[in-house]
Design brief:
Layout (H helix, E strand, L loop, with lengths): L8 H13 L2 H7 L4 H15 L4 E4 L2 E4 L1 H24 L8 E7 L1 H5 L2 H11 L3 E7 L2 H9 L5 E4 L9 E6 L3 E5 L10 E2 L9 E4 L4 H12 L6 E5 L2 H9 L5 E4 L11 E5 L8 E5 L7 H12 L2
Parallel strand pairs: 3-4, 3-5, 8-12, 9-10
Antiparallel strand pairs: 1-2, 5-13, 6-13, 7-11, 7-12
Helix pairs in contact: 1-2, 1-4, 2-3
Length: 297
Amino acid sequence: MTNAMHYDLTDLRLFVAIAEAKNLTRGAERVHLAPSSASHRMRLLEASIGTALLLREPRGVALTRAGEALLRHARQVFAQLEQMHADLTPYAKGVRGHVSLWANTHATHTFLPDSLSTFLKRHPQVTITLEEHTSPEVVMAVARGEVDVGVVADLVEGAEVELIPYRADRLVLIAPTDHPLARRASAGFAQVLDQPFVMLHSGSAIHTFTMNAAAALGRHLEVRIQVRSFEAVCRMVSAGVGLGMVPLSAVTEGSAPLAVVELEEPWAQRDLKVCVRKRESLSRFAADLVTSLTEAK
C-alpha cells in the first residue's frame, strides 16, 4: 500500500502562489505567510508527496516535473472549488455569485458592453471580472481552468475547450475621406503597410494581433499615435492622422466621417465565439452568462 499524503488547501494555495511568483518569499506574501513558515510547509509537502517539487535557484525557484504536474492539478482543484461555491450560493441567503470573463479587444470594445449590461440587469446578485487578453491567451486560460468564460476570435490548436457562436464581424480598413485609399473598395494588408497607422494602445489584444500580422509579412507597422478606444481611432483617422484597422461594428453611424475599405485577408473575418472548458461543468452563474451571450443577438 502507498502511504497517505498529508497536506491541506493552504499548502496547495501556497504552492500555486510560489510557482506563479517563481519566488518563495513573494509567494508566501501572496497567501499572508512568513517565508520561514512557507519554507517549512513546502518541505512537509514534498515529504508527504515523496518527491521534490521546487528547484531552489539563486534568484528564485523553478518547478520540477512533479511540480509542474501538481500545479496543473492544483489549479483544477481550485477551479472546482470555485464551481462548488457558486453552485451552493443559491442556497445561501445574501451570498453573491461571481464569474471571471476574459475577452479579446474586439469583443471588449464592441459587443460585450451591451451584452453584459443586459445580463447584469437580469442577474443583480452576480458580479463579473472582465479582463482583456489576446484570443490565444484567453483560450489557454479557459483550458487550464483559470477563467470561467472567454470570448475569442481564434482557436488554439489542441486546446480542449468548447466554442459557441457569439457574434459575426470583420476587420476593415478606415481612411480619411480625402485619402487615395478612400477611392478603393478593398485592399490587402501588405498594400497599406507603408502608411502611418492609428492604433489602440500597446498591450491591447488587437495591437498585438496587428503587429503580428505585419511581422508575418516581414514588415513593420508605422504607428503614428496610440489611443484607448475604437471611437478614438475613428476620430483620429477622420482628422487625417493615419489609417486604422477596426471591426466594422466599431464604425457606427455616429462615427466621424470616414471611408471604410474592405480588407482582403482571410483573417479579416472575425467571428467571435464564447469559449468554455466544459459547458455542463460550469457554475450556475457562468452557465447563465453563457446562455445570455449566445442566445441573444
